[in-house]
Write a structure and sequence with these properties.
Layout: H1 9-18, H2 29-42, E1 50-58, H3 60-67, H4 69-86, E2 92-95, E3 100-105, H5 111-125, E4 129-131, E5 134-136, E6 139-147, H6 154-170, E7 176-178, H7 181-203, E8 207-215, E9 221-232, E10 236-238, H8 240-249, H9 253-268, E11 276-280, H10 291-302, E12 309-314, H11 315-320, H12 322-334, E13 338-344, H13 350-356, E14 361-364, H14 366-370, H15 376-392, E15 395-398, H16 404-413, E16 417-419, H17 429-448
Parallel strand pairs: 6-7, 9-11, 11-12, 12-13, 13-14, 14-15, 15-16
Antiparallel strand pairs: 1-3, 1-6, 2-3, 4-5, 8-9, 8-16, 9-10
Helix pairs in contact: 3-4, 9-10, 10-12
Length: 449
């Protein structure tokens, strides 16, 4: 009788199984880590470069959902066969996740060569896959990192490859990104900003600024959009285009948004009662069912009338989880909060969203407004949006107005609301109060004469 102890065959088979992906027959993540560990050990005395890469299938989940799990497994087996066939005698490919594969190129020494080999893998995987009597197509994204010194561990190399893969996925499908020293510095800077932002939110140091929204016919201010601004004691002024995406990615956007809304509603309580306050919700807040409760709790705490609040959401936010977004929107509208669709015309399925959701207002994206004077297509698009909103009973605000001629053209087309540097840049609460005093003083003077 054979035994599983010592060097008997069953024990060896057990070890092989522990290092093998049962579906594809490729090595698994344990096999891959072991291979990279061994190679680092072999090159400890003479650390010649080598390449580690992670390949992720783009759009595999929708195909899996459409054709079924059996078809998905068949595609993964075909992917594994193609990748295995593309490896030379020195190289290794393993399946390390559901639709994620890792490869090791011991003889690839440069970033250029790593990118070239990765593009070849993407090309190989782009050919059609047999799914029963049908075919499916896939693309893939790849992130690579190169081993340069004995200080680097397998975990460090794979983390760098995953960071590069993240950048590849963000830049579009079918892309290759090789981890660079510049990327490393950028990652460190993001971490520094994240840590500083967490501290700033906890200390209440992010402030609301307010940009006027006007009636284009009378130029009277009818409301203000709230915009977050942050100046750090060490980093200086950090643009919202930098810290808002970091807040989204690192899970800080909820506390940040609540802080800014609380400060904004406290400031807006002293404004004339006919002015509204507009506030943006991020995509991640539209999948959190506590968002409506947080907003209502803040309004109750600050004593701000819900009927004076407008919430702005984007199509991107709606598309993340339409059912969740719809429930949040309904909860807000039930207490009198108005809801606007922001950046209209730059997302996807805009008309479909207008049919599925009831919006009180639509904001025309600045991209169309900036070219309204010299681009006929932009002019026709704005006219069509205005006609559509009139038919749907929706208010309209055009964003990004910087010139009198743009405002005049919009009035000519029948656009009622406007926003942009022509009417005022975003300023803090004190400056906004001064702006309102001057505006109402001027209005009273004009009325008197």
């Amino acid at each position: 009788m054979q035994t599983t102890f010592g060097t008997g065959q069953p024990g060896r088979e057990s070890t092989d199984l522990a290092f093998t992906d049962p579906l594809t027959g490729l090595g698994n993540h344990r096999r891959f880590f072991d291979k990279v560990d061994r190679l680092i050990g072999d090159r400890a005395d003479d650390p010649a470069p080598f390449t580690v890469g992670i390949l992720d299938l783009d759009g595999f989940k929708p195909i899996n959902d459409l054709f079924g799990h059996k078809a998905g497994d068949d595609i993964l087996i075909q992917v594994a066969m193609r990748l295995r066939a593309s490896m030379d005698g020195h190289s290794t490919v393993c399946r390390i996740g559901a639709d994620e594969f890792a490869f090791l190129y011991p003889m690839v020494f440069s970033e250029e060569q790593a990118a070239e080999k990765s593009r070849m893998l993407i090309e190989i995987l782009s050919a059609p896959y047999d799914v029963g009597e049908r075919t499916a197509r896939l693309s893939a994204s790849v992130g690579c990192s190169l081993f340069y010194s004995g200080d680097e561990t397998t975990e460090i190399l794979i983390n760098k490859a995953e960071t590069a893969l993240y950048h590849a996925k963000r830049s579009g499908r079918g892309r290759v990104v090789v981890y660079t020293r510049e990327m490393e510095e950028a990652a460190k800077r993001v971490t520094r900003i994240e840590q500083a932002l967490r501290r700033a939110v906890s200390a209440g140091e992010v402030e609301p600024h307010f940009q006027p929204i006007v009636d284009l016919n009378t130029r009277r201010t009818i409301g203000f959009e709230t915009l977050a601004r942050w100046t750090d004691r060490d980093l200086g002024m950090v643009p919202p285009s930098v810290f808002i995406p970091i807040a989204e990615e690192r899970g800080i956007i909820g506390p940040l948004s609540q802080l800014v809304l609380r400060k904004a509603t406290e400031a807006a309580r002293s404004w004339p009662k006919d002015l509204f306050l507009s506030f943006n919700l991020s995509p991640s807040q539209l999948v959190d069912q506590n968002t409506g409760l947080h907003i209502l709790a803040i309004l109750e705490r600050t004593g701000f009338d819900p009927r004076r609040l407008e919430i702005e959401i984007t199509e991107t936010g709606l598309m993340t989880d339409p059912a969740s977004a719809e429930k949040i929107v309904e909860d807000l509208r039930r207490v009198g909060i108005r809801v606007s669709l922001d950046d209209f015309g730059t997302g996807q399925s805009s008309l479909g969203r207008l049919r599925e959701f009831h919006f009180d207002k639509l904001k025309i994206d600045r991209a169309f407004v900036s070219s309204i004077l010299d681009d006929r297509p932009s002019e026709h698009i704005i006219r069509a949006i205005l006609a559509m909103c009139e038919g749907l009973g929706m208010d309209v605000v055009a964003e990004g107005i910087e010139e009198e001629a743009q405002a005049d053209r919009l009035v000519q087309f029948g656009c009622a609301g406007g926003q942009g540097y022509l009417f005022g840049k975003p300023v803090d609460a004190d400056a906004t109060l001064g702006y309102l005093r001057d505006s109402y003083r001027g209005a009273l003077y004009a009325k008197a004469i």
